[in-house]
Amino acid sequence: MSEDRVIRLSEVAEHKVTKGKDKSVWFAIHDAVYDVTKFLDEVRFLRLEFLRVCAKITLRRQAR
């Protein structure tokens, strides 16, 4: 069983590389952090739309 870990938004912000060998994309919603890196290859044709929606959700959350 894994232990809960506190992840700061500054750490989430570091994971925004969408291409290359260092590819890593995380986002936070409702106090949970999601690593969506593996989905970028699985849904390559939706990559830009997926990232746009993630960014929109994040901006809405920050505006509260």
Q: What are the SSEs and their pairings?
A:
Blueprint: H1 9-14, E1 16-17, E2 24-29, E3 32-35, H2 37-42, H3 47-63
Antiparallel strand pairs: 1-2, 2-3
Q: Could you name the key traits of this structure?
A:
64 residues; alpha+beta; 3 helices; 45% helix; 19% strand; globular
Describe the 3D structure.
There is one protein chain. By secondary structure, the chain is of the alpha+beta class. It has one domain (9-63). The chain contains three helices and three strands. It has a three-stranded antiparallel beta sheet. The radius of gyration is 12 Å and the shape is globular.
The strand count comes to 3
What spatial order of strands do you see in the largest sheet? 1-2-3
Percent in strands: 15-25%
Low-confidence stretches: none
Q: Which series of helices and strands comes N to C?
A: HEEEHH
Mean pLDDT: 79
How far apart are the first and last residues' alpha carbons, in Å? 33 Å
Integer count of domains:
1
Largest sheet: 3 strands, antiparallel
The shape, in one word, is globular
Structural class: alpha+beta
Helix content: 40-55%
Give the radius of gyration.
12 Å
Note the total helix count.
3
